[in-house]
Amino acid sequence: GTIDPKIVTAWLLLAVLTGAISWDVITWWFGLPTSSSHALVGGLIGAGVVKGGWGVVQIAGVSKIAYFIVLSPVIGFFAAIGLVLLTVRIAMRYSRSTSDHAFRRLQLVSAALYSLGHGTNDAQKTMGIIAALLFAQGLLGSTFYVPFYVILLAGTAMGLGTYFGGWRIVRTMGMKITKLHPFGGFSAETAAASTLFATASLGIPVSTTHTIAGAIMGVGSTRRLSAVRWGVARRIVYAWVLTIPAAAAIAGLSYYVLSLAGLS
User: Fold this and answer.
1) What is the rounded CA–CA span in Å between residue 4 and residue 115?
2) pTM
3) How many angstroms separate the CA atoms of 258 and 246, rounded?
4) Between the N and C ends of the chain, which has fewer C-beta atoms within 10 Å?
5) CA–CA separation, 213 vs 263, rounded Å?
6) Any residues with CB less than 8 A from the CB of 42 and at least 6 apart, and which?
């Protein structure tokens, strides 16, 4: 957990979502991939502290999240390097056109696996927030569970958001960090998917964005370090570092305004 669940109310969750969504929109506008998961964590901390003080923050849970903020892109980076070295050895046995054609087809599989990993990680948090709101309002009875319509709603929202609004981020990830060939894209997606499945099985809320960005940087660095546009990478890292405090500040301010209006 991030904060004491006893203080969670519908108005607190509204402030949390305001903080997380506001930061996501800001970074989306600048084409910077950040973690919605960590924005939610920041929102919970910010709104929770304003409501109940620092004592409501569960240090053990926040520490685990902070640890994997750093570790997940590192895992993705080195896993991608290992996969690139393997796929290059396979690709060298065939002509460039043959290997590119094969890895383009394999990318359909690796992209699907990454999308599944994305769902097992990010969609869980969305469903958790919605279900927590329903439970806080007494709409789930005495037992906490995630209704099927919430699962359907979360999956649909993620799909539509990616399809209609994700192109700024797609452009950054696909073209601005480094130039990706089919075997490189396959390696990055497979490395990121493997990392996401492993952390999801351990119940650790890592960032799909951090993981795939680290994997893409790993792929680029196998050619040469200068193949990675480190200026773009640096901007992405700055956005990562600012995500939790920025979302916390917006959520905290939102809850403070709600409390002044007598809605807390």
Assistant:
1) 31
2) 0.85
3) 18
4) N
5) 40
6) 19, 20, 23, 243, 244, 245, 246, 247, 248, 251
Nearest to 43 by CA among 9, 3, 10, 6: 3
CA–CA dist 80, 216 (Å, integer): 7
Calculate what percentage of the chain has a pLDDT beyond 90: 36
Beta bridge partners of 16: none
Q: Phi/psi zone of residue 6: left (φ > 0), alpha (ψ -120 to 50 degrees), beta?
A: alpha
Tokens linked to 30: 């600048």
Q: How distant, in Å, are the alpha carbons of 1, 56, 81 from that of 205?
A: 10, 19, 23
**Which range marks the domain in which residue 14 is found?**
5-260
Q: How far apart are the first and last CA of the chain?
A: 21
- What does the longest C-alpha to C-alpha distance in the chain come to? 70
Q: Which two tokens stand for residue 18?
A: 């305001």
Residue type, 6: K
The secondary element (H helix, E strand) that includes residue 216 is helix 208-221
Here the tokens at position 107 are 């990318």
Report phi then psi at 203, rounded to 5.
70, 30
- Residue in the block written with tokens 């097992």: 120
How many structural domains does the chain have?
A: 1
**Residue 226 corresponds to which tokens in the numbers above?**
């200068």
Residue-wise pLDDT for 6-26, tens only, equals: 888 889 999 999 999 999 999
**In this predicted structure, what is the pLDDT of residue 67?**
82
**Per-residue pLDDT tens digits for 98-110:** 888 899 999 999 9
